[in-house]
C-alpha cells in the first residue's frame, strides 16, 4: 500500500506547483494589463496615449487634422458670437420700437457701429478661413513633414503659425538665399511659455491688449526678439499732434500722448517732481528740461565730464551718425542734433515712458535690451555713447559680448564714449582691462572718486583701422 501511495503524492505535488506557476503568470499578466490601462488614461488621463489606444489619429501622414478641426471650430465660434450680438441688438431695438421713430443717429455713429460690431468680426473670421490650407490628396500621401519640437511645445496656434517656416510660394530660393523664411523668437521663450501665450492670445485684426509691460518683461527675461502680432496697437484716446521740431527738443510733451495706466505717475509734471514713488532711479531729474539743457555743454568741476564740442573737435566733420546706449529721455541725441549729428537712443520703459518721451521730442528711440545683438550692420556707426546703464553691476562676460558687438558696428576711426561709468574701487582694474582689451586709441581717460568705495571712469576711445 505504501508503494502505491507514493506516485499519487508526487503527482499531487506536481499539480500544486503547476497551479502556483499558472497563478503567478495570471497575476503577472493582470498587472501588465492594469499597467496598460493605467498608461492609456483610465485612471490618470494621458490624452496622447488614449488617442493611440483608441486608434484616433491627429495627423494623417504629416497633415495636422487636429489643427484643422481647431481652426474650423474657432471660425464657427466667432460667427456664432457675432450672430448672438446682432440678435441681441435687434431684440433691444424691438423693446424700444417707439424710441426708434424719434431717435436720430449720425452717419458717423452708424459707421462706427458697423465697423466695430459687424465688419471687424466678419473680417477676423474671414482671415481665419483663408488661413485654412487643405492639402491635395497626393500631397498627403507624399508628405515628409518633420516633427518640430519647438513648434509643438506651444499650444497657442498663433505662435505655432509664426515660428513655422514659411516656404517660397513659387518653389524657388528666396532673395535671402534660403528656401523659406524662418521667423525667430528667443530660445528663452520656452521658459516663459505661459506669458508668451498670453501675449499672443488675441483676435486677428482686432485691438491688441494694453500689454507693453508684458512684452518688455518677456524681452528682459530673454524672450527676445518677440514674435510679430496681427492686432492693432492701442494709442491714447486723446492723442494730440506733437509739437514742431523747433519746439519739441527742449519742451515737455503733451501728457495726453502717453498711456499712463502702467505707471505710478499720470503726467510729466509728476515725473519731473521730487517724488520718491516715481518708479525709476537710473534717470533722476532727466524729465527736468532746464537741468537737461546743461548736460555736455557747461563746464564741470569733475574731470570725468567731457563736453560735446571738445569731443567733436577730435574728429571735425566726421561724426554724422551714432548710437546712445543708456537710460534717458534723449537729451544726448538732442544736443548732437544741434550739431547735425543723428543719434539713435536705446530705451526701455523702466518706470516711466522713456520711448514716448524720446519720440515726442522728435528723436529716434530703439526699444532694445542688453540681451539682443544690435540690429545694425558691421562698421557703420561714427560714434557709440553710453551712460547710466552699464555700471559695476554688469557681469564681466556679458560686458565682453556687448563690447565686441559695439566694436562690430563701430567703423574704423569711430569713437567709443564711455560716460560716467562707475564701479567699486576694487573692481576697477578688471573693468579697465575689459575696455582696453580692444586696443583702441585713448583720446581722453579720466577717473574720479564717487564715494569712499566707488569710482567714476570716463573714456573717449578710437577704433583702429584693422586693415586685412
TrEMBL record:
Q: Which GO terms describe its molecular function?
A: methyltransferase activity
Pfam families reported in the protein's UniProt record: Methyltransf_29 (PF03141)
Transmembrane regions? 20-44
GO CC terms, sorted: endomembrane system; membrane
- Where would one find coiled-coil regions in this protein? 65-103
Q: Does the keyword Ligase apply?
A: no
GO BP: any one term:
methylation
**Gene3D superfamilies to which the protein is assigned, alphabetical:** Vaccinia Virus protein VP39 (3.40.50.150)
> Subcellular location, in the record's words?
Endomembrane system; Membrane
Membrane-topology annotation of the record? Single-pass membrane protein; Single-pass type II membrane protein
Q: InterPro entries in the record, alphabetically?
A: Prob_Methyltransferase, Put_SAM_MeTrfase, SAM-dependent_MTases_sf
What are the record keywords, sorted?
A: Coiled coil, Glycoprotein, Membrane, Methyltransferase, Signal-anchor, Transferase, Transmembrane, Transmembrane helix
Name the principal localization, coarsely classed: membrane
Family the UniProt entry places it in: Belongs to the methyltransferase superfamily.
Its name, as the record gives it, is S-adenosyl-L-methionine-dependent methyltransferase
Q: Which organism is it from?
A: Prunus yedoensis var. nudiflora
